UniProtKB/TrEMBL annotation:
Keywords recorded for this protein, A-Z: Oxidoreductase
Domain of life according to the entry: Bacteria
Name of the protein described by the UniProt record: SDR family oxidoreductase
Gene3D superfamilies, sorted: NAD(P)-binding Rossmann-like Domain
Pfam entry (one): adh_short_C2
Family: Belongs to the short-chain dehydrogenases/reductases (SDR) family.
Family annotation (PROSITE patterns): ADH_SHORT
Amino acid sequence: MSGRQDRFDLRGRVALVTGAAGGVGRVTARRLAASGAAVAVTDIDKSGAVGLAKEITADGGTAIGLRLDVTRDESVSAGFATAAHHLGAPVDVLVNNAIVACPVPPRFHEAPPLLWDTDLDVIVKGAVRCAQAALPAMMARGDGVIVNVVSVNAFAFFGHPSYSAAKAAIVSLTRSLAVEYGGHGIRANAVSPGTIRTPAWDEQIARNPATFEALKQWYPLGRIGEPDDVATSICFLASDSAGWITGSVLTVDGGLTAGNALMARSVEGS
Ligand SMILES: NC(=O)c1ccc[n+]([C@@H]2O[C@H](COP(=O)([O-])OP(=O)(O)OC[C@H]3O[C@@H](n4cnc5c(N)ncnc54)[C@H](O)[C@@H]3O)[C@@H](O)[C@H]2O)c1
């Protein structure tokens, strides 16, 4: 695309990204295409998905934009069938990325059941639906990659219990898939981002424009993440460069979960 060949070689791959009209998904779809993959840009937001696919195509990449609602079985199966039809082969790289953003989550004891239902349906069952749609063709080909976008919230509490529990569940799903389908040449991994500058934060930033500035202090690398930080890791895991990596979680969090810099400084007395 635009003469730029990304560092990972995904030529010949057909990738499908869920939630690809959002912050991380958009850049991931772009980077997969720049690495040579044909990309199904999918989202519940059809115009966002179609618009991005047009941009990728105009840039010299191969993409199709589709409305795919990960909470609907028929939408998922239709999306995978349409992607295979238009992109010339079944999906062999699946990126489970969609979420419903909830920038200011309620406290646990005040959370309505609908919030739990939504997070579990979109994040957990959405990933299950898409993996089940992708696996038969991957098994037939003896090759395939699934990358689940999780979160530091899967491993420690940073707020938002229902989202955190759902993300923890797909860490487990990642390991199940890796072990159960490794014999078919299929790899399954997860990326675990810390705070990433995306539209998921828009409502919170409107309330408090200094949010990212305040969050920076918790990150040993001194900044919050950008979508490209996550997209690069996804492209790596999707590529043959990660050919012997499966069942793993790649932490992409600027050092957040490596320890607590503020606590360390207070222990040192500085
Ligand atoms: N932004 C962060 O700080 C952060 C931190 C850790 C992990 N992540 C993870 O990164 C991924 C992307 O997050 P983001 O910040 O880009 O979010 P985002 O809100 O910008 O994008 C999410 C996308 O998912 C789509 N979506 C919602 N419901 C859907 C459905 N039923 N079917 C299909 N698509 C649907 C939305 O339309 C949206 O385009 C998520 O898995 C998220 O958990 C983000």
